[in-house]
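pipeline: protein-struct stage 2 | run 1193 | Nitroreductase
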Amino acid sequence: MSQKSDEYINFILTRRSIRKFKDIPIDMNLIKRILDVARYAPSAGNRQPWIFIVVKDIEVKERLAKIHRWAYPLEKAPLGIVVACNKDISPDSYHVDCANATMYIMFAAHALGLGTVWLQTLRNIEDIQKILGLPSNYIPIAMLAIGYPDESPSAKNRKPLEEIAFLDRYGNPFK
């Protein structure tokens, strides 16, 4: 492997879920750049069924932060991004398509010195649609709290590769 490859792998491995943010506004040009990167995420048939809603309004952030107990980081974050997918454009793959776009957002933010945390949405679809005025065919796949990190979490333990990787069929160890 080259030094560049090692840098890329290290970049991926150093991204963390950030739940505490500094009280520093984010330049909207950075957000525009992040969303521009997200447009290049892979999607089935290149349908690109996503939309991105940048949430800066304090009241809207508070409402979204209260949809479930784990959404609280959004309240104190400078802003949030909701990734929603049009299920009519990509009915069989919109979940995966928008998950890809969400990861592109998270990696672009990490590259620009910002932190993110993925806040689940799938148990609160109608609540989020109502808060954001989303039509019923737009399904919120992810909410991200985003800002300059005010914490440095260490890496969490991961399952050993032997438990999760197989060769040719389940149960056949990948060696």
